[in-house]
């Protein structure tokens, strides 16, 4: 499946380069966050305002075939733009974790379920705990499930 629309690469060069390399190599290259060695996935969304296709590398937090998508934005006071894309179009989402992207449905989790996914997320990428301390907002956690 592809998401219909014009692809608009990220304004950030390192993000554009990572997505392009990851996709071109089927995830064999550019599959970690910069030089951390920690794995990433590529999430494709449909822009809520523009209708354009967007691709975002996110930390890989996988559990029993589902993926946490943590809207941390490094602990910034506001949510990342892709969070709003997911909320507006939860069924127009692809995740790529390896050679081929696959369709997912996304839902935001709360309560005990969020707590469990947050714990998994911090275990996969410890800076998330520091990001939460930096901001007054509760960092959203969304779960992507294969369709």
How is this structure best summarized?
The protein is α+β, with helices and mostly antiparallel strands. The chain is 29% helix and 27% strand.
What labels would you give this structure?
single chain, about 150 residues, alpha+beta, Pnp Oxidase, Chain A, seven-stranded antiparallel sheet, about 25% strand, globular, F420H2_quin_Rdtase
Present the secondary structure layout.
Blueprint: H1 13-24, E1 40-46, E2 53-59, E3 62-63, E4 66-70, H2 81-88, E5 93-96, E6 101-108, H3 111-124, H4 127-134, E7 141-146
Antiparallel strand pairs: 1-2, 1-5, 3-4, 4-7, 5-6, 6-7
Family: Belongs to the F420H(2)-dependent quinone reductase family.
GO molecular function, one term: coenzyme F420 binding
Pfam families: F420H2_quin_red
Protein described:
The chain is α+β, with helices and mostly antiparallel strands. It has a single domain, classed as Electron Transport, Fmn-binding Protein, Chain A (Pnp Oxidase, Chain A), CATH 2.30.110.10. 29% of the residues lie in helices and 27% in strands. The chain has 4 helices and 7 strands; from the N terminus they run αββββαββααβ. A hairpin with a 2-residue loop joins strand 3 and strand 4 (66-70). The longest helix is centred in the last third of the chain and has 14 residues, at 111-124. The chain starts with 12 loop residues before the first helix and ends with a strand. The model has no long low-confidence stretch (mean pLDDT 96).
């Amino acid at each position: 499946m592809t998401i219909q629309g014009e692809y608009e690469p990220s304004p950030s060069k390192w993000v554009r380069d990572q997505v392009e390399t990851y996709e071109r190599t089927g995830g064999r290259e550019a599959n970690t966050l910069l030089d951390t060695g920690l794995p990433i996935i590529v999430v494709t969304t449909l822009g809520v305002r523009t209708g354009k296709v967007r691709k975002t590398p996110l930390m890989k937090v996988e559990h029993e075939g589902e993926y946490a998508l943590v809207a941390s934005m490094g602990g910034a006071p506001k949510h990342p733009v892709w969070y709003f894309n997911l909320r507006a179009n939860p069924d127009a989402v692809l995740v790529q974790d390896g050679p081929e992207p696959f369709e997912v449905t996304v839902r935001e989790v709360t309560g005990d379920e969020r707590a469990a996914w947050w714990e998994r997320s911090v275990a996969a990428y410890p800076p998330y705990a520091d990001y939460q301390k930096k901001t007054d907002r509760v960092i959203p956690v969304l779960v992507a499930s294969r369709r």
